[in-house]
Every structure is written in structure tokens, then in C-alpha cells.
Amino acid sequence: MLAFLLTVAAAWATLALWYRLPASEFMRALVAGLFALLSASAMAGLFTRWRLRAAAAYVLTFAVVVAWWNSIEPPRYGTWAADVARQATGTIDGDVLTLFNVRDFEWRSSTEAVNQRWMTRTYDLSKLRTLDLIMSYWSGPEIAHVIFSFGFDDGEQLAWSIEVRRSEGGAFSPLADLFKSNPMVLIAAEERDVVGVRSNFRGEDVQLYRLRASPKQMRSLLREYVTDANALAETPQFYNSLTSNCTTTVLKMMRVVGASVPLDWRLIINGYLPEYAYERGALNNSVPLDELRASSHIGERARRDGLSPKFSKEIRVGVPSNSGAP
């Protein structure tokens, strides 16, 4: 058992040194390699009469790595990629929500946007009518990016996307982002921007589901998004592929506003989140799940629309309604 625990600790610490040690690639490889050798020696020592000394020496070295790790803070400023350059913030006065830095980009390709607009928008919370779950599958049926979109009675949609705040020229890496590689950013955006770039340019399988939620639940969740966005602007946090990502952060919000979200493996392998939501009664379960999923694919409609001002309306054609609040 001790050997197993040391193996897990050694794997984590070796990768942490490789990804986050502030040194050249050669030095990172050297230090990580030396730590791996030290770990192997300590584990070999467990099967000798010097096992206590070997374990003590390893624990002391590991404690130094942990202390260094805990000292790493997420950066507040950086040369960020254009689409994650600004963190949304907002104020709520009665039923009037004012959001700053709402993203409204016009995309030319999967990575290049023209007319990079960051807007100030106001929304009337008393006119909030719908809440939709948008799943964008970028790595097979198991993994998807999760977007929540709030709809108002004038047809306007407000989408929220929790993303990696990567540096300019940087890329998303699920493994690297387990090791404090990038901060988190909470993007508020127009659907034809944050959804359209995925459906029309990145070639992802985008699915849209109408959620069953009461007006009170929708307002509470939207307020929680604004609260979290403001907190993130004030105190940056690291994105973590397992513990603080586009799924887990939303689930924390939903629990804060009183929604019941029991633990389930599909909250980690989030590509199966629609099945989980269907079983929990969060989707329209008067329609068979297979039929609901078949109608949820918006890619063809999105590409046919071409990111027009009617994008949000067109991608919902044929998608069953939420069939009332739970």
C-alpha cells in the first residue's frame, strides 16, 4: 500500500515539476527525471531493512515539492489569446442586469476572428424565459464543452462559457491543465460567436437541449454566473481539467442555487451529461431520449444560417420545448 501511494505521489510530483518548474525545457526534464529516480530508489528501499529511512527521505522531498506547488498563484495579467482576453463582469439593480465585456466576435476561421467586439449589454431579468444546455463534442462522444444559454422573451440569448485563459499562441491541453498551466475565464457571449465558431468553423458536433427550470431557478443561476464572474475578475483561479472546468464549475453553481445534483460518473465523463439530465427530469422526458438527441444536433442548421442575426432562432427549429418547469 505504501509503495502504491508513493507511486501516485511520484507521478504527480514528476509531472508537476515538468509542467510548472520555471526553467528551461532541459532543466525541467533534468529535475523531473531526478525526482523520478529518487522516487524509484525510495520505493526500492521499502523492501529493505532501511525502509523507514527511505520513506522518511522521500516524504521530506515530496513535502518540499508540495510547498513549492502551493506557492504558485494564477496570474492576474498576461498576453492572452484574443477570444479570452477579457473577463465578463456585471451589476444587478433590481431586475436590470448590466454586463460588461460580452463577447461578440465574427469568426473567419476556427482560430481567427474579425470585428473583435466586447460589448456592454443590459438584460431585463423579469423577461427571462428559457435555459438551454449546449454540448459541443470536440473529442468523440465522451468529452464535450458545456455552454449554458439564457433566453429572453424578445428572442435574445445570453450564453456563458467557462474556458481556459490560454496565452497568445497557446493551446488547450487536458493533461497540462491538471497542473496549473492556465487560469480560468468566464465568457459571456452572443450565441453566434461562442456557439457558431464551434458548429461552423471547428467542425464540432454541437447539440442543444431545452432545460426544464422555473423562472426562479433561471434567475438564481444567472445571478450566480454574474457573482462568479465578478469574483473571478477580482481573484483569478486556475483551470483544472478534473476539478474546475466547464462542467464542475456549473454544477457548483447549480448546487449553490438549490438544484439537486447527485454525484454521478457522467459528471466527469461529461459527454453523457444529456442522459444524466434526462434521468433527473431536467429535460423534456415526454419525448424518448433517442428522439430528443436526434433533434438536438444543430450543426446543419447553423451552417445553413451562416451566423446571421437570426442564428439563435434558426438553430432551435425542430428542438422540442422544455415542456414546462419541473
Structure description:
It is a single chain. By secondary structure, the protein is of the alpha+beta class. The protein is built from eleven helices and eight strands. A hairpin with a 5-residue loop joins β2 (96-107) and β3.
Give short descriptive properties of this protein.
alpha+beta, five-stranded antiparallel sheet, three-stranded antiparallel sheet
SSE blueprint:
Blueprint: H1 2-20, H2 25-45, H3 51-70, E1 89-93, E2 96-107, E3 113-124, E4 128-139, E5 143-152, E6 157-164, E7 184-189, H4 191-194, H5 196-201, E8 205-210, H6 215-234, H7 248-256, H8 273-279, H9 289-296, H10 299-305, H11 311-314
The total count of strands amounts to 8
| Range of strand content | 15-25%
Helix count from the secondary structure assignment? 11
Unreliable segments (pLDDT under 50, ≥5 consecutive)? Answer: none
Summarize the structure.
This protein is of the alpha+beta class and 326 residues long. The chain has helices spanning 2-20, 25-45, 51-70, 191-194, 196-201, 215-234, 248-256, 273-279, 289-296, 299-305, 311-314; strands at 89-93, 96-107, 113-124, 128-139, 143-152, 157-164, 184-189, 205-210.
